[in-house]
Design brief:
Helix content: 25-40%
Largest sheet: 6 strands, mixed
Number of helices: 13
Radius of gyration: 24 Å
Strand order of the largest sheet: 6-5-4-1-7-8
Shape: globular
Strand content: 15-25%
Length: about 425
Amino acid sequence: MKYHQIDRDLFIKNRGKFMAQMKPKSVAVFNSNDIYPIGADSTMPFEQHRDIFYLSGVDQEESVLLLFPDAPYEHQREILFLKETNDHIAVWEGEKLTKERALAVTGIKTVHWLKDFEKILFEMMTHADTIYINTNEHYRAAVETETREARFVKWWKEKYPAHTVAKSNPILQRLRSVKESEELDLIQQACTITEKGFRRVLSFVKPNVMEYEIEAEFIHEFTRNRSKGFAYTPIIGSGNNANVLHYIENNQQCKSGDLILIDAGAEYANYSSDMTRTIPVSGKYNDRQKAVYNAVLRVKNEATKMLIPGTLWKQYHIEVGKLMTSELLGLGLLDKADVQNENQDWPAYKKYFMHGTSHHMGLDTHDYGILTEPMQANMVFTVEPGIYIPAEGFGIRLEDDLVIKESGEPFNLMRNIPIEVDEIESLMNS
């Protein structure tokens, strides 16, 4: 891993919180992700399953975590299974966790090689009534590939049909959505790396540069600061490309007078950042671009103030919609008749601002969190309003990452990333 080792106390705390929510006489099992093939002997870069990472800090393939708080003996309450390492693996694939190293990373004292998993699980199941299986129930999930976790669930159901099934996901949705201080520090580090990338780009952009060249500047700065790279596929959309919400081709030339919408964030230690800025190719916004930009910025600033404990996500978006409607009226993009005759299921402002304003962020860019439950302190949300005007050839979105506090306005993890028109123009022309 490129990142500095994380204090194992974080993972010890996380496991303690999860086990406190488990039913009596129950076992929970968490699997690492697979390494996915591309073709021939090529594979995609490994990405660890965020749940096993959250609970253990293990960041390698073929790993399994077993939790059994009511096990007969203390050494059976937390068990980690790892791919057995040897000199041959070390030469061809690099260092893998040894049992001693696993203890240092995770704080788990009982570590076995993966070949012993089925035997030890059988022993644990003879003392358990329930097993927690780890299904993906995120509201944006659309999984077509059979995961290692899914294969385990199928195998387990055939092997142990008499046991009761419980779900780990509802517990993790709540636990992972409220961040520990160590997690906030890691997200801050990801945001700080993103800031470095953005400042690099501000001094690089000029007319006729290619979108993918901007992407390359980010990845250079991210990698040299211990990041694996982008937390998600970056959007570098110049001109009308900015009006395609998930534009990821990043293959067009940036023309003089156009704006570039940049939605890009670094990861650090598997934690995400999520930034959007919209900058002028020529280093200066024209009057119309500036007016729309500042309207989006006002909505972002006012929406940010609403991220306080007790806020309901659905009502929050209704209120943000009112802010955006007012701004669109001021810009002449809507008139009073548009608002009076609007469809309540698709308000008039949705013509120019058709996506949500905020989502949970953490180990996943669109992180765990139950949207029907009130916001809490130490949750991290994005705030990302936008106005998209294909008829005028540009779209503007601005996005920061915020930590909800016990009282007062949220803490902006991207407070040092330039966002005001004057600062961006000054930096681009310095």
